[in-house]
User: Fold these one by one.
Assistant:
Number 1:
Amino acid sequence: MVDSPRPQVMLQGAPPDDARPGIGASTSRIDGRAKVTGEARYGSDFSGGHNPAYAFLVTSAIARGRITMLDESDTRTVPGVLDILTYRNVGDRIKPGKTFDDKGYMGTTIAPLASDRVWHDGQIVAVVIADTFEAAREGAHRLKVTYAEEAPSATFDSPGLEIVSADSASREGEEPGEEKPQVGNAAQAFAAAPVKIDAFYDTPTQHHNPIELFTTTCSWSNGKLTVWESSQNVYGYQNGLAEQLGIEPSDVRIISPYIGGAFGARGSLTQRTALIAYASRRLNRPVKLEATRQQGFTIATYRAETRHRIRLGATPDGRLQALTHEGWEVSSRPDNYKVAGTDASTRLYACPNVSSEVFIVHADRNTPGFMRSPPEIPYLFALESAMDELAVALKMDPVELRRINDTQKEPIKGLPYTSRSLMQCFDAASQAFGWSRRTPEPGSMRDGDWLIGWGCATTMYPTQVAPAAARVTLTPQGSARIQSASHEIGTGIYTVVALTAADRLGIPLDKITVELGDSELPPAPVAGGSNSTASVCNVVAKACEEIRSRIARAAVTAQDSVHFGLDPASLTLTDETLQSADGRSEPLDKAFGRAAGGAMEVYAENIPHGAPPDGMKRLYRGTSSLAGGAKLKDRIQFAFGAQFVEVRVDARTREVRAPRMVGAYASGRIVNPKAAKSQLMGGQIWGISAALHEATEIDRRAARYYNDDLAEYLIPVNADIEEVQTIFVPEEDKLVNDLGIKGLGELGNVGLNAAVANAVFHATGVRIRELPIRIEKLLDAPAIRS
Amino acid sequence: MRPFLYERADDVQSALRAAAPTSQTSIPPTEASAQFIAGGTLLLDLMKLDTMRPQVLVDINGLERTHGQIAATAQELRLGALVRMSQAAEHPDILRDYPLIAQSLQQAASAQLRNMASLGGNVLQRTRCQYFRDPSWPACNKRAPGTGCSALEGVNRKHAVLGINEHCIAEYPGDFGPTLAALGASVETAGPGGARSIPFERLHNGPEVPNVETVLAPGELITGFVVPAGPWTRRSVYLKVRDRQSYAFGLATAAVALDLSDGVVNEARIGLGGVAYKPWRAHDAEAVLRGKPFDEAIAHAAAEAAFAGARAHGENEYKLDLGRRTLVRALLQAAKLEI
């Protein structure tokens, strides 16, 4: 029996917001009311104006082969059916595009209606357009498609796979060797190491399943195309779509003010968008597609399954001597998509001998893509599980093993971390969790019929910043409008942008309007890699600084100003006044009137450290240049955290539940602690989801997804989640960017997979190296008496 | 989804008239051109997937007035077919005298679904086998007779291990059904041939002809259930083992009712869910317990008997073990109850 703190009520009413708005002020979302009242309009809420037609997709029932017959006759009899797109009438009318990570915009190069070829399960083989959604669906169900099927390769261990080294598949701009960080002689050091771990780890296929379905609405007017589609990359979509349709980017507008969940699924352009645009042009009428939940599993991207071999060698006192991380990742036949998380996993701990390699495993599948913490989730699951195994082998506390191998320099090139507070996070989280009461022996902590296990792991995420632009307009009445084509994927960017402007312009939030998610606004980078807060807030601050500077310069040269003769750099905008350091102040409207007649509008661009000099030009072409992480030449920048979890496993039937978790994070400056806490809590909950629940099952014979709905693809429900604690460890990092923001959108879920597996080992003595952790993997636990 | 005619019925006779078969040829009830709809929580899903294609929907919610009651007497519990799952789950007589029925309903589906779904529709819930539900899979004897069974060598982690054959290994996914089987309930129907009462255990067919799932005739309507009272119903448990804490189908479930005196089992009633082709009554396991002093060893022996004829097909191998453990745990819990 263990004296564990019982779950507390998680929500005790939201704490009040901090009184003065600004960077670091805990603030309720400024768009919160619009979201809960339905006023906020998501991609699926738009219908392209009056009288839209509706599209329904027909998707392939095979994973590999050719279409031999398309019989439309039954479909044509359905009243209201207007048009049917197939490879016969689309073909090369939609141009191929490159993938996002190949300097293009697409999630896949597989162009579904380009030919009779079927590359993967659920590929679009026809689009039926009708006056109503119901008629389009019925027409789609009545379309008869006949295939010549070829034996497909489904996943690891299937016949017919092509396996290539990711290094040999490097693309333009990538240095050879980038995919295989190494130093010293890992093989020799491993052979000589007194304590060794050598194990394989597997992570499953996962799908984002954002609540908002994959919807696209297109409308043409005078040769110009408007697209309403939830997007994490409106400039990328604009440029990519223009390329596919053979028109100018300036003739394409993407509108995406609110996004009903993205998690990476809306970062690259899917093939459906051009098809709907093309259908709309043929019919000269707005066309709306709302794909089904099932179709969402195959017409967009996903997290592919991965396999890892980790070899760790250590001295008896726990110092790592050798680390080898090999990764295998499934991709489609034509595309070399990979996440290659070795660039993080090889740099986490001090180790003199490191080697790594990543392999791409080509199968008859759709092309995978970004999904929250794409590289770190699978690669850190493997490494952090192996570290726990090493701690067990050494009979050492797993926190202490990490402390012994902590470092302020990454081991491959010896570059310094701009800041790294990993052990401060471990200490804060372990104290809050009560880790010192843990007894290390598996199965040694028990509460009645429940076996209790406590586990922990490191979480890390690269700090990345990208070129961005913003326009800030201040009116004589002291109201500000902030415009940038950034993306509200649920993380709260409207609010952090407003807080930045409030901070720098000294005005209250209710005088600030923020406009995002429209390709007609100044460009912002893709909402990916947790860069948005850092990228957008820094450029907004830069524009605000220009406004402050103009107002201050006008004041110090005006004899009627209290600030006459002062250094303009010493003046600040605070509480709707222009203030000097010695407390003199004058109202904002008065100071503003000297600097501008009407409104003052400032457009600013920011190119962060490490980004290419032509980064802004690339951004206007829809290509984001994320700089940071392990990709810099002079330093390395990551955010860190420590995650602890308690699992309870029924001694007889072996259900695993995770009632309690604590995460502590150091991530530089936190712009809105309230939203950041929510984001990290959500990440932790996703961690439980990934560790215990999520997996897309594949029929290995057919290479087809099986459980393609939310009844069978499980994520936690409220009853699964009890106590979720997050702790911010203060950290100042003046190097990463002017505002010291590290970004934390993807920090919260990375370590949980391993933490849960480590806790399950502690509860049961069974080491699960293949996610998700399910009952059947725990039934054979001979060490545990029922 | 395909166009269909929608009719409302206010009484049993008009419902039967609206759903009367148009031809004399015998077809499986699930393939009849007219289908009854109450909560619609299953039928609409399958219509959207194009798996069921009724031409007429007969809305029987109007029958709630006459068939929406719960009545408990010393002899029996009567449940109208239009009683909603949530209604029965919260009924004080059921909570007190038939806790396993309340528990099976509380742990089924979600609150929203329980508020909509009728008991009559619930027992006719169809399998979650995706090879059945998704018509893009070519082989499924239940959906397209004679095409084979994709699940035998496919994804079958959730499939049945009891009451199966080589034609079909689909699991019956419901929770209420196993409790009715355990308690020896009967189902009352009205149909073109008049009213009848069918032992609940005989309502569902085995997999000999997988697309003929029940003994109901096309156009025959379930009007209610009768659960006989017995000294075992109060000492009862419905245990559901599943991947997550709520809103998930059972991997293995056990509906257990015991009549114990002085530690000896006078009577045992056992239903199993999540592991069987149809709502399953474990007669052999009951026989092991009957007349014996109850202890953990006899619970294990009962579980062995319950799964003696079980067969796995790969991924669902664990259900042989998990099913036994679930039953043992349920029996131990029931035996420990203070009543």
Note: The interface with chain B takes residues 59, 61, 134, 137-138, 141, 294, 650, 652-655, 657, 692-693, 697-699, 701-702, 704, 706-708, 711-712, 714, 716-720, 774-776, 779, 786 of chain A (CB under 8 Å).
Number 2:
Amino acid sequence: MVRVEKDLQGETLELSFGPQHPATHGTLQIVMELDGEVVLNVEPHIGFLHTGFEKLAEHMSYNQFVTVTDRMNYLSPLSNNIGFSLAAEKLFRIEIPKRGQYIRVLMAELSRIGDHLVAVGTAAMDLGAMTVFLYGFREREKLYDLFEWATGARLTTSYTRVGGLMADLPDDFPDAVTKWVEQFPKTIDEIEKLLSHNRIFQDRTYDIGVISKEDVLKYSLTGPVARASGINYDLRKDMPYSSYEDFEFEVPIGENGDAYDRYLVRMEEMRQSVGIVKQVLANLPDGEVNIDPDSKITLPGKDEVYTTIEGLIHHFEVTMENKGILPPVAEVYMGTESPNGELGFYIVSNGEREPYRVRIRPPSFINYTIFKKLMKGAMFSDVVSNLGSLNIIAGELDR
Amino acid sequence: MSEFTEKIAAKFPDEILEGPEMESENAISVKSDKILAVLEYCRSDAGMKFEFLTDLTAVDFLEFDSPKRIAVIYILRNMENMQNLIVRAFLSDDEEIDTASEIWHSAEWLEREVWDLFGIKFKGHPNLKRILMPDDYEGHPLRKDYPLKGRGERDSFKIIQRDRERY
């Protein structure tokens, strides 16, 4: 048999991935230059979901903007609510009561679990493992039922307010969370059984998308992506907020910084979050969740508003324009550890009801900047491995 | 003034500006001419070690009593003692500022975003294109004189006329 050797080099193919593709998990486009199966260059295009949140913020009061933060990282809206409220509270120089802080920690950790379940599930689904996704979504569905019970909505939670929470937890809620959290680790075990020693999964994530420690600093990476590269950096430990210093938990650190380590870090973070949730439930203090309404920042209780004239006037004072306490002329930056990394809010206030400028530090946006470097010279099949392990959320990417 | 901002003021006495009056912690206002030298000093000096660029953004101080209109904001972090430092570099809306993307690669996209939304040009930037808004968009929406409503891309959509003669 005669084999015809033909020189096929020199011709490259331009391939557009997205904006409508199931593995992009949102509207983003990657234009790739391919030489056979080798990716020579990628050019990510973003902005398809840009809705001008930062411009909107300049025309809303602080409490109104909480509703907008729901739409940022739509896999963990509660974390966004909490991040923004903490930044606004830093601006107003207030601290909410312990019970409120503990409930925020509870909600933040539950939404971290929900976010990681989707991150791991969809990353595995893109690599061909459908079952993990279904197992993850089964538990996430139960979580969303809990969120709906406490906040009134599955996704658009808007649970926090400047100076506290929309409402205290329902009476039976802690018991329901206890019940859920007792049975949940079984799902983590199931997912690990399916993935951790799975030959196909390992082949497609081992040494794929390796990020070095230096690159973490160069590219300002945060969250599970940074920790998988061996950087011990978690704002819950390093700059504790909302009483995180009261809880004991470990920060999982990876060694190799590849896609597999990012998966492992996420799995371990879920276990740690389960531990934090249990500690919150065991130590949940009694008392108020909001700061004293006399501060004129939070609304008075509904029973007071409906039955007394003072309460009604008070309610008006807070909600009407040109009334209520105004923030000082100041700038603050507050970073929180959201499931994806550091979610920061930089607020400049000129002393009026609306913030002068709100800047959101989006972890997805900044983690995505390294994607171009990861893909240079990699194989075509690594695109979804890398994209899934970085966990890019388009709503937060484009804001 | 904190110990870190004092150090910067001692090192670059000619660069310091009186920023707009507002409360803040650990922030310093500088001129934009030598911003790279200031940032490099913050990053590499043994006493500073602010080697993590947490965020890069801008603020349009049009309604403030400010030395110049736009401030490019660098939020730096010391990874050992977990302190934040805010460096504000002031420039007028038609001036250019050096790119920090050589020092931190993450600045590349963040600066593209500042160019897109504020119209600040970064000298020496490898790929200064719009990132969030469409390429043919006019104006820079996060400027204070840009209205929230009433101007936008919808005008630039092609109006498709049905070809009457064909039907």
Note: Residues 1 and 7 of chain A are 19 Å apart (CA to CA).
